Amino acid sequence: MKCQVSVLLGAALLCLVVLVLQPSTVRADRLQPKGYKQTVEKLQKFYASFEQQVSREFRRWQQQGSMTPHFRHLIAASAIGKSERAQEIRELPTAREGPLCAICRGFGGSVLEFRREGASREEVFNTTVELCTMLNLQEESICRGLIDLNIDTILYIVDNRPELSSASLCAVVFQSGACVLDDPTFTEWQVELDPNGTPVTASKAGTPQRGPNDLKIVQITDLHFDPNYRPGYNAECGAPACCRESQGVPEDPAAGAGHWGDYRNCDTPWNAVEDLLDRVAEEHADADFIYHTGDIIDHGIWETSIGYNVRSISRVVEKFRQTFGETPVYNILGNHEAHPTNVYELGEVTRPDFSTNWLYHLSADLWSQWLPQAAQQTIRLGGYYTALVSPGFRVIALNNNDCYTFNWWILFQPDALKGQLQWLHDVLLQAERAGEKVHILAHLPISSDCFSVWQREYRRILERFRDTISAQFHGHTHKDEFNVFYASESPEHAVGVAWNGGSGTSHTNVNPNYVVYYVNPETYEVTDFESYAYNLTSANMSPDERPAWFRMYSFQEEYGLSDLSPAGVDEMIQRLGTPAGRDELRRYWEYKVKLADASLATDCTDECLLNHLCEIVTNQADDLRKCQELSETFFD
Question: Which positions carry the signal peptide feature in this UniProt record (predicted)?
Answer without folding.
Answer: none
